[in-house]
Specification:
heterodimer; A: 262 residues; mainly alpha; MetI-like fold; 2 domains; 10 helices; B: alpha/beta; Rossmann fold; 7 helices
Chain lengths: 262, 246
């Protein structure tokens, strides 16, 4: 057990230390210019030097990501419930959900920006990130709501359950594993959407980490760009880790995926 | 006469004729088995009795008001996300019946199947036989007087199945239940029932209706008696005769 832990955490750590060490060494050994590839130590000192600016930018990105994720969750589940009530509604609307999903967010960014007004770039970013994060939750929740056991449905018929009872006591719990899977995908997509949308929005009132990276690039402060990039990765990992934890907690008593090792 | 099916025909939307003019009656307190090959429509007949589906022609009639029904499904059909107690409580919550004494009803039902100690367990922690007992407790939690069972023990190993057969006989006698039991096992149907109704392959028709009058009390020894063997032979002969004439 402890041995497995060492493998699970020790090996990736070892890889990270080795990679960073090699990176640091190669930058000095080959005398690579800092505006091409800064050494890890330079990135750390850039991060410390620009700490306040980076943190306030990170906060903007985190806020937009979380809001987009919550909206995607609300809309995704609401539409999934609607779809689960009637195949007709699903056939009528699902193609549009797919269209929304397959249209590259960068391509619709200028339109959204025009509609909300260039002074509201942050709102445009929120709308775009929500759009990106919405589909996995919709698709997974729709599948889950429909996959409740047929015999349990008959049991609910037998006792004259109404739609609401069926939804809350049968379909929703049955869909929970799917919804949580959708959430894990959407959590990452919300962050990606937030960053891509901010790149697309370009300038103006949106000042998240993507904007920091753009600015640092213009000014050849590559170390700062790397620091912002590292922060984005950390945020992404944190989102994934917390959603995985939520999934484990929610399913630990009953779902096969959470069965403890025999 | 508690319940009667009168020339019931069921055609599914895809055109499959599942039941062809099926007629039989069930008296109060009887233990009736529907036995036949897979796909002969016996489960369909049970669902018609339960009112889960409507006949295409013919009539399903209850003598008086429709009594409280309990339904036991093929593979227990428990909600995996709910504890044993919550599973048994489901019918009470759906019908909003007996909120005040729901706890004691759930406990009584679990007591009846010998699982009171497992109230807080989740279904995945139970064996197949225990899951089936929970399913029976759930069917009885509403004070059902009629129990409809759809091949409930088909997936269990033989020893567990024999034990649950005995428990079901005891339950039937103690609670004065009426049971309609669907199975494809001739031995099981003869051991359990007071009457066996044999059905033909699809489309399902009644091909024999054989009373299993004596004895009322059955135990392991009954399985090795001559009358038991004779009845098994009788039911089997009816089923084989039908299978031979396509």
């Amino acid at each position: 057990m402890i041995h497995e832990r060492i493998w699970a955490y020790g090996l990736p750590t070892l890889v990270a230390v080795a990679t960073l060490g090699f990176w640091e060494w190669i930058v000095y050994a080959l005398d690579i210019k800092p505006f091409v590839l800064p050494a890890p130590s330079a990135i750390v000192s850039a991060a410390i030097g620009d700490w306040n600016a980076l943190m306030s930018a990170a906060w903007v990105t985190i806020r937009v990501t979380i809001m987009a994720f919550v909206w995607a969750l609300v809309f995704g589940i609401a539409f999934a419930i609607l779809f689960a009530q009637s195949r007709t509604i699903e056939s009528a609307l699902f193609p549009y959900a797919v269209t929304l999903q397959v249209t590259p967010v960068v391509a619709i960014a200028p339109l959204i920006l025009i509609w909300v007004g260039p002074d509201n770039a942050e709102r445009a970013v929120l709308i775009l990130a929500t759009t990106v994060a919405f589909f996995p939750i919709l698709a997974n929740a729709t599948l889950g709501l429909r996959s409740a056991d047929r015999q349990l449905h008959e049991l609910f018929d037998l006792y004259g359950a109404n739609r609401w009872q069926r939804l809350i006591r049968l379909q929703f719990p049955a869909a929970l594993p799917n919804i949580l899977t959708g959430m894990k995908i959407s959590g990452g997509l919300a962050l990606i959407g937030a960053v891509v949308a901010e790149f697309a929005a370009g300038s103006g009132t949106s000042t998240g980490l993507a904007w920091v990276i753009l600015q640092a690039g213009f000014n050849l402060k590559i170390a700062k760009a790397f620091a912002a990039l590292a922060l984005l990765s950390a945020i992404g990992i944190a989102i994934y880790a917390s959603l995985s934890l939520l999934e484990r907690q929610a399913l630990k008593h009953w779902h096969e995926s959470a069965r403890p090792d025999e | 006469m508690l319940l009667s099916l009168d020339n019931v025909t069921k055609t599914f939307p895809n055109g499959t004729l599942a039941l062809d003019r099926v007629s039989f009656a069930v008296n109060e307190g009887e233990f009736v088995s529907l036995v036949g090959p897979s796909g002969c429509g016996k489960s369909t007949a049970l669902r018609l009795v339960a009112g889960l589906i409507e006949p295409s022609a013919g009539k399903v009639a209850w003598d008086r008001a429709k009594p409280r029904l309990g339904f036991v499904f093929q593979d227990a059909a428990l909600m995996p996300w709910a504890t044993v107690a919550k599973n048994v409580r489901l019918p009470l919550e759906l019908t909003k019946a007996g909120d005040a004494e729901a706890d004691s009803r759930v406990n009584d039902a679990l007591e009846l199947v010998g699982l009171a100690k497992f109230a807080a367990a989740y279904p995945r922690e139970l064996s197949g036989g225990m899951r089936m007992r929970v399913s029976i407790a759930r069917a009885l939690a509403m004070d059902a007087s009629v129990l409809l069972m759809d091949e409930p023990f088909a997936a269990l190993d033989e020893l567990t199945r024999d034990r649950l057969n005995d428990e079901l006989r005891e339950l039937w006698a103690a609670k004065k239940l009426t049971i309609v039991f669907v199975t494809h096992s001739v031995y099981e149907s003869v051991y359990l029932s007071s009457r066996v109704i044999a059905m033909s392959p699809r489309p399902g028709r009644v091909i024999a209706d054989i009373a299993m009058a004596e004895p009322k009390i059955r135990d392991r020894d009954f399985r090795i008696t001559a009358p038991y063997g004779e009845r098994c032979r009788q039911v089997r002969a009816a089923l084989q005769r039908e299978a031979a004439t396509p």
